Each structure stands twice: as C-alpha cells, then as structure tokens.
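Allow me, if you will, to draw on your knowledge of protein folds for a short while. Thank you for your consideration; the sequence and its tokens are set out here:
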Amino acid sequence: MCKKSKIRCGGLIYLTSFVLVLVGVPLVTQAQVDNLAINPSFEEDEVILNDEAYEHWWTWGWEEGLNSTVEIDEADFVDGTRSLKVNPIGGTDWYFMVANSPMPAEVGTNYTASFWAKAEEARPLAARFKATDNSVDWGYTAFEVTTEWAEYTMTSEAINAELKFEIHVAAVEVPLWLDFVYVYKGDYVAGIEPSLASPPVKATAPVPADGAYLEETWGNFSWTPGSHAVSHDVYLGENYDDVNDGAPDSSGFRGNQAPTFFIAGFPGFPYPDGLVPGTTYYWRIDEVNDTEPNSPWKGDVWSFSVPPKTAYNPVPAESAESIDVDVTLNWTPGFGAKLHTVYFGDNFDDVDNATGGLTQGVTTYDPGPLKLAKTYYWRVDEFDVIETYKGDVWSFITEGAVGSPNPANSAVDVKQTPILTWSPGVYGALHQVYLGTDKDAVKFADTGSPEYKGTGDLGAQSYDPGKLLWDVTYYWRIDEVNSINPDSPWAGPVWSFTTASFLVVDDFESYNDLDPADPDSNRIFNVWIDGYDNPENGSLVGYDAPPFAEQTIVHGGNQSLPLYYDNSVGDSEATLTLTYPRDWTENGISTLSIWFRGDSDNAAETLYVALNGSAVVSHDNPNAAQITTWTQWTIDLQGFADQGVNLANVNTIAIGLGNKNPDVSGVAGGSGTIYIDDIRLYLLTP
C-alpha cells in the first residue's frame, strides 16, 4: 500500500483460515496433539446451560438470545456416544454462544481450534478466541455449516496468556450439533479424526433423496437403518411440524415395522387414493431397540414433492432481468401434461385473462424478436388429456432497462438513510420512483398509488427516501418515461432491501474514485480527514492511485478504510464529520462497534477513538495495531458521556493511534497501517 509520500509498503499476513473435512490424509491419533479443551466430546456430565462458574463448557447470551437452549444428544454424534445439540434464538450470532475455558496459551504463538458440526439446514456459524478476562478477542472466523457432520477449523496467533474458545450460534434460529472439539498449540494438523466414532444410530440415506421430486402418485420409500435398530417407527404427512413433533399416538404415525422400506399412494397403504400432485410430503424414521435405554432414536425430517399439474421452473426465471431480446422460453411440464398452451404479451391482465391459444407438444416457445427495456409476461397452461390447468403468470425484463440498483437487490443491513441510485435505461427521458413495504403494491403501482414518490429527470438517477424504519424490508421500482416514444413507460423490476437493526456510522461502501470535479465524487480521504496537510498529524487515509479505498482486506461488503500512521510527529488520527447518525441515543443505542485489523510488522501504538474532538476511549490491548485478524472492538457509549459528550449531538468521530492526552502527545513513536471497517451503533454490546 502506498499513499502520497509518507506511506510505506509492506506484505500481508493471513493467519486466520477455516478448513472443511480433509479426506485421504494420514490418521493422526488424539494422543499426538495436546487438546486444551475440556470435555471435548461432551461425554462427561456437567452443567452447560447458564453455567455460572464459566468453566469447561458453558453458555452465555444477551436478552435476545436468553431463550436459547442446549441439550446432550445421545442419538447423533461423531465421537463417543454424545454430542451437544444447540437450539438458538436471537438472529445475530453473538446473542448466544457456547464456550470452553479456561485454557493456557503462549502469546505470539499460533493456536488452532477444530470442531465437528452439522445443522438441520445449512446455516452460518462463527467462532473466535477471547481472553478469559474478556479484555481482547481475536481470530474471528465465519463458517457455513451443512446438514452433514464435517470438521471446521481456524488458526490464529494468541495475544493473551489465557484464552477461551467461543462459538457464536445465534445468527439464525436453526438447530445445530457440536462434537469433538479440539484446541491445540500450533497450525492445523490434518488427519485428527474422532477415535471413538460409531456408525450413525439414526436412519440415513433416504430414497428418494431429501427434497427430491417424485414423478409418480405412489412411492416406495427406503433408508439405511441405524446401527442399533431392530424396528422402525414411520411418520408421513403433509405438515412439517406434525411430522417433526409426531409420536406413536399422533395422526402422522404410520406404524412400527421391521423392513427398511414402506409404500405410500396405493390402496391399503398411507394415501390409498394416491399422492397429490403439487404437494410436498414430509417423512421421518425413528430407530427402535427396546433393549437400549436411548431408544428410540429420533430421525431427521425428510421431504419429497409430487410435481404440480401446472408448468413450473420457468426459464427465464420469474422476474429475471437483462434478458436477451432473442430469448427462447422453456419450462418443466406439469405432472402428466401432454400438451401446452403458451400465452405471451406485455400486459399482465391480458396474459392472465387470455384463453383459446394454440396447443403444442414441446416445452419451448420462441416469442420472436423482442424490444429492449421491455417487461414481458407469459403463461403456460397444461393439458393432461382430461383437464387443462391454468399456469401462473411469469415475467421478465429485456436488456436495456434500468439496472445496477444501489442498495443491491435483496441487500440487508442497509443504513436507515440510504440514497437509492440506479443506472438509466436506453430510452428514458424521465424516471418515476415507487417505494413501499408491500411487494405487490409496488409491483402494480401507478402514479395514483401511494407508493409513487415522484418523477425526476434523466441524469439524476437517485432518490432520497428520508429516514426509514429499523429492520424493515422495502421494495422499490423505477419506471422510465419518454413522451415521444409510443412504448413509454417502461416498467422496471421490483428490487428490495432490508434496513439494519443497528445504526451504520460508516461501512465504507459509498466511496468512489471519481474526479473531484465530478459532482458524484466521494473519495475516501476527502471525507475522512487525515494529516496530509498537518505536520503534527502522522495519518494518511487511502491510496495514491485508484482504488483509493481498500478492496481486498475487508470485513464486510467490498471496501474498508486503510489508515497509515507515522507517530514520529506525535500521534496520528483521521476524522469523520457526521451528518447522520448524530443522535447516538436513537432507539436506546448504547454501544459503538468498530472492526479493525493490523499487521504484525506495525509498531505497537495505542488505538483510540475520540468523539467531538476531545472525549477519548483507548483500546485495552496496547498491541492492538499488531493484531493480524479482523477484530471487533465494542465501546460502551457511557464512557464518552462521562467525559461530557452530549450523545444526542455527536459531531465528529476520530480514529487514531498514539496518545491523544495533551500531556503525553508529541512523544515520537512508530509507524504502520491498520484497516477499519463496519463502524456501527448497537442497542446492546455485540
């Protein structure tokens, strides 16, 4: 990284990583690695949920996660005879966590944590190391956990002499299992396998596969039995909860049997009149052995679907954008369909109400050359020799329409004061803006609808909706208008974004590399004011050449702030003048959160934050600038209020390295580069 004349260039070191299960590697016995984790496979009985001693395994959560639970599972595991099942509630990963502590460590030495996990459905998970006294954390790593047992690992350099290993589980409310947790000194060692692994005691390998389509109205369903099974309790139904919660006295229970298959959809079997097209069915197999105290072993809930009578899986997909004007349409035929009738046009109502079309035997349709920037609608009716089944109306937009929405379509954690922008279509002279919280209302709105927000000129592709609500999904649409073109207006696609459940101070995504003469120019070092023209401030923000913001070393999104410091002049800081948010009491917020990352080559200088130019809070770790992984720093806002800051009127925030104390500043120090990202305000400490 080189910025102006003060910057130095240096290498980057990546110490945090994660690895999924490695196969084909030599087996390493557990004895070859000293496991610091206590009770790693949950074989010993201990208090885990809300353990007030915080020793060995324990849980901890904020108010939003306090209804989370954990339980020992003796039916599903990879080591020994037990695992830990976690039933999280919260919606944010840190609202509930499972942890193991205390463990000794050597500062400056790499430590690896590995664990085995699976979930009811694919879901995110995060883990990190943290000092036992909570003074500092490091090595935060995000994972994607699958529905099959797999190993997940992370490696990071210890920055405290005693650590705990935290697994943050509340990102989504999807249950998961943990087992065979290892924390050891050194880099990742391949081949450490659960030495007491046993064949699964639950039913596995369903046929048809979970989520599959069944192209018949009957089926023969089979599975691989659990290792201890003598017989099998079969559950089958159309409601997931009924099957998941079913018991032998419930309506979804289909009997106990010895064979590892059953039939449905024939007389004398479940659903004697046949399985119904367009229906999703759920089934579960509990393995039974009355001589085993842990019997029955509850199985996973699997599903299959009988295709609908109507056409499905359209190509282009529903609401697709930028479709070629020479596109050929295709679809998957409905169950039993022999003939197909296609209706196509540029008006929803006309297509929806059309009748009497020509039938065809193939599942493709060529609408002929289409117009640019146009919304088209199409419908396929299916005929199975007995009856015609009217299809859904699908739509797509051809290339040349408005595009490049910002916020991006389906974006989440968007600030409550976004400026909506887009790229214009090829024909528009004006644009009409629609915005609301009801998708269909926005989709079908016209200039007489409350969702209509006004008309703007070509060249001004932006709209300021004002301050939006927290944690709400908004839908928006841009129509292009040109009074001299008979095809006007051109309806745009419906996009969406969801506002954050926190306030965004700066996520660094809005900065660009445009020339300062351009009215849309927003260079990062013209907003975060550094010490370029101040000989008493050794900071420099950004790079000499585009891209001026950092676009590789980022915590979230696509950009972060690179901050160079040279404390040979005293201290270094960069300052942001706030426009919004300035009221840091909104909705009861209480915590400032900053993600930062340093470099092991950096000089050890104190990292600090200053509000309104004077109130200062410093990081507890004097070596914070040398931390080589993304690290979250949370600060109680009361610490600023105690120094006289009116939290309802915060004007500036500065991030610096050195000592802002006027009695100490001016003392020569070292230099380095740190990266800053995702500055946020939360209701509670994340």
